[in-house]
Amino acid sequence: MRTVYRVLAGLVAVEVMLQAAFVVYGDAGLGIYVEEGGVIDKAGMEAAFESGEAPFPEFIGLMLHGMNGMMVIPIIALLLLISSFFSKVPGGSKWAGIVLGLVVLQVTLGILGHSFPILGALHGINALLLFSAAVWTFYRSRRLSGEASATPDVPLDRVAV
Amino acid sequence: MALLLALAATLAITLPLGWMWNASRMPDTYSVMDMGVHDPGLTVAAAGHVSGGPGAHQSGPPVGSAGNGAPISVRDLTEKEGGTPDVRVRLVAAEGSVTIGPGVSVPGYTLNGTSPGPTISATQGDLVEVTLVNESVPGGTTLHWHGLDVPNAEDGVAGVTQDAVGVGQSHTYRFVLRQVGTYWYHSHQVSHEQVRKGLLGAIVVAPKAATAATTAADLTLLSHTYGGKRTLNGKVGEQRLDAAAGDRVRVRVINTDPGVAPAWVSGTAYRLVAIDGTDVNEPTPIEGKSIIVPAGGRADLELEVPASGAARVQLSGVSLVIGPTGSTAPTTRAPGQSVDFLTYGTPTPLAFDPDTADRRFVYSMGRRPGFVKGRPGIWWSINGKLYPNVPMYTVSEGDVVRMKISNHSNETHPMHLHGHHVVVLARDGKPATGSPWWTDSLEVPVGRTFDVAFVADNPGIWSDHCHNLPHAQEGLIAHVMYEGVTTPYRVGGSSTHNEPD
């Protein structure tokens, strides 16, 4: 179960990385589209989001960012929390809870960012917090060669013997 | 022991989620009458009933009521006026491709081989008969007359006022055009997809008596996005209308997309002469401002071709140049400011008193996580609840109804009530001071509250939904139901699978 926990934690980190890639890819495409004289209003955006038939090819990045962020990542984070109950990782549930909490905050900031751009800025900062938390959760859950269990938030090899 | 605890914790998380998921699943087939929470909205100060609607265009005969208390079926709420139709149209819906420019085609649906379908032009008072033939639209189709307050049986909502018309079947709609102005028709079966793919067209109703000041040209500009490309009347890019200097031209803008489309004019000043079909009283000249046309909404613009050059009517990425051959007008950016319908034009008295409302409703839109139709997500809520636990606004014929519509979500919502026009009384508590703002497609921006009123003069069961059609499909839909009216039609089902949104 520890492996499941580890894989899920790692997945969250990889997913956050993908999210950053998707949104910048989409925004860059939008920038080129506008610079080349393309115009888009809400009617055009909504039609594109609905149909997937986009005015510029990189639009797919914006769609993937939305679907991945609002559906896939929350489900992974939830599964991470559940797997923590069964894996004997000390403090595993606490860190899974922190990851899930940051995911919820991240989705909220992402949605509100459409109305208040400053919250979109926090969405960017929180992404780094979430990424770090996921990487740390992954890292600290490794099975140590010496002692099977017992890992505080400071890895054993750093603890003076 | 540890394992038991782990199991308990897992159940503590999954059971509520599972329960919520299960509760949100819809049965295979259901009636909209069984959906949601009955909301009578009764006020104590229910005074005598007043009839009459938005100005002269609305005065039709009452369409029947359950006088003896027996329920009336939607099926029987048909057009009462008989006789030979003045306008007969046959529309054949088919799967095919839509050509939007030289060599540019996108897959979609057509009516009589084209999309947009043929424009239905008629005169006020005409009896119209439209036969819809479904040649090859999979899953069936219907036609809804957006903005026309037709009898309920003719409203074209699959699963509420009729069954979807399957492949090889046909359905005939009959109604009298009591209103004048610009309207449109579109499918109301799997509408979020069928409208996008092209099952739509324009309707223009001319007044019975020609107005004193007629225009030299009258043109419909139906804006629609096919395959990611914006078009006017189904064509991409710039279009031309030849007109002489000094000619007065009326341009009827129809926004069929799921979001607002700003429209603006360069080269001359213009006036907004009608909103959603209803004439604006004493419209003033507009310069350097755009018109925000809501999803599903219409805006009629009137302009005079300038002595020098031409005028250009613009929407995002498309435009129409109006002027003598060879003339042109610059393409401009959308103005930052837009015309506020709340203060535009000059007031006239209403035919009813909204202060003596018999019913008062609240339509408060929000957004929250949960399950809709078994799917997890962050969904639109109405009065704090998710679909299908939405209000069923219940009225009686003759009631004066007030509704407070507010948007606490993070996206705008174009609200569309079928079968009626509402008049905007106030926005964020600020009373309307312009020409009476009658609308059927009201853009409700984030954080805004509108007070609207209407007269319940058209019995039936009427959708009251967001015309960002994907939002309606995601559950942002409620109904206004008249007491004593029932529907035999059901949403879902296997033989005719009705899926209105």
Please outline what is shown here.
The complex is a heterodimer of chains A (161) and B (501). Chain A has 161 residues and is mostly helical.
Keywords, separated by commas or semicolons:
heterodimer, A: mainly alpha, 5 helices, B: 501 residues, Immunoglobulin-like, 3 domains, 8-stranded mixed beta sheet, 6% helix
Q: Could you describe the 3D structure shown?
A:
The complex is a heterodimer of chains A (161) and B (501). Chain A has helices at residues 2-35, 42-51, 59-86, 92-112, 117-140. Chain A is mostly helical and 161 residues long. Chain A has one domain. In chain A, helix 1 (2-35) runs antiparallel to helix 5 (117-140). Chain A is elongated, with a radius of gyration of 19 Å. The two termini of chain A are 29 Å apart. In chain A, 36% of the residues are buried. Chain B is mainly beta and 501 residues long. Chain B folds into three domains: 22-55 and 349-492, Cupredoxins -  blue copper proteins (Immunoglobulin-like, Sandwich), CATH 2.60.40.420; 87-206, Immunoglobulin-like; 217-323, Immunoglobulin-like (Sandwich), CATH 2.60.40. Chain B contains three helices and 37 strands. Chain B has helices at 2-24, 191-194, 469-473, and strands at 29-30, 37-39, 72-73, 87-101, 104-111, 117-123, 127-134, 144-146, 170-176, 181-186, 200-206, 217-226, 229-232, 238-242, 248-255, 261-266, 270-275, 278-279, 291-293, 298-304, 311-315, 318-323, 359-372, 375-382, 385-386, 391-395, 400-407, 413-417, 422-427, 430-431, 438-439, 441-444, 449-455, 461-466, 477-482, 485-486, 491-492. The longest helix of chain B has 23 residues, at 2-24. The chains are: A mainly alpha (161), B mainly beta (501). The A-B interface holds A 38-51, 53-55, 59, 70-71, 74-75, 78, 81-82, 85-86, 93, 107, 111-112, 114-115 and B 3, 5-7, 9-10, 13-14, 106, 192, 196, 223, 225, 227-230, 255, 257-262, 295, 315-317, 334, 367, 376-378, 410-412, 446-447, 468-470. Chain A: Keywords: Membrane, Transmembrane, Transmembrane helix.
